[in-house]
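ugh ok fine here u go
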Amino acid sequence: MEVHLPSLPLMKILSYLDAYSLLQVAQVNKNWNELASSDVLWRKLCQKRWHYCDSDTLQLLGTETWKQFFVFRTWQEHAKSRAKPEDFTYKEIPAGYGFRANAYYISGCGLTRNVQGRSVICMVSSMTKLSTWDIREGVMTWVSTEQPASIQLLTTLPEMHIAVTVDAHSTIKLWDCNSSDALATNSLSSSCQLLKAVFSKDGPIVLVGDISGNLYILRIPDLHLISKVNVSPYSIDELHCSPQNKWVFLIGKYPHVLTKVFYMSSLLRTSEFSDPVSTILEFSLYKRAFWTPRREDRITLMSGNVPPNPTKFGIFDMKLEEIGNKVTVQEYLVASFSLQDYEASPEWMGVSDKDVIVCSTGSSLLLFNIHGLRLQTFHYCPEEILTLWVDPLHVIITCNNGSMDVYAWEERSLLLRKCYRLQSRRQLSRRNFIFKILCDDVSIIGVMKNSPAPCSLMAYSLTSALEN
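structure:
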């Protein structure tokens, strides 16, 4: 006997379900299938999973319904999770000198109907030149003219296929990575410490921090100065934007300097706000920070292990409040815990969209919930974990032998599933190691330090057959 419920209350009930449950509900009968396939429900799921979904998404993709888009894009995202080591092509790419070897994706990372055809990275290929490389082919696709001063910092905005650099003279330049000359320039009076390009609610911007503790916000594409605010008496050491760039987290260079979170709109709309809106997070001995994916207002902080104080985690929520005509931001400590029983100190950390904290010690990969309950442990001794990459889909670690282990977050649990290992294709010495990981839908890149020689990139790309 079929169960018939009024459509309105049933739709309300279905709005609380995840994608997997909606697909199961659709199997009940024709009426439930129609309701569970509603664009209203699936668009909500799409916007929760991919913040940049908008009304133009389906037209761009040529997809008929939001449900079809969700299924297609999810399948696309999990290509690396379905892969095996033999499904990757391997290339080594030369890079620049020392820390200037950092590379960034410049190929589009937005929503596409076809799987991203190729991964392209931008990097400082010598001290005074910028270049782009096709990862799968291992070939250079563009190089800038030689610059009058060495390039110190690099960031990219893949959605617009542009790069931004800062040189030793504090000159900021915007590149489209097609023309040999920069599209726009601007100069600061103080040496720059950090650089980041993002899409804000008000359009693309560049954030620059200097050694005097000032934060500059510049408009793309003309690099016009929007605002400048002094954050700290010391240089700004780190900057982390929330998933939709509603908040920007900043930390000064010295441990005793408290961390700050700014409301991004107050930095961009100076005519609407008399002063930048910010709050201080009371958290001592800060070491790492990570915004919860797909959740705009939550950030997790990790402290260093400074005896007798063990490593501590603090989870904070940000909330805007209006008092009269003034907007303020209030932070709330949601949870905290310490690792009392671990001799080894965590070096790296990240957070899943289910608020699971993953951290790495030299010999273990550990998972905790926000109250400190240990959920899972992966042991690596006698190998040593060097770096950790965490995103909403994957966790990737590198070992001291150059290998990379790829894990996937389980869709319907809090745990990790180990997928495969990408073995190093060459013998590494004690002075050769991967110090940074990059990852997109179809490639994984390790930036390798080859002391005393220049750095290089170890690039793995999925084959076309598996992508589709």
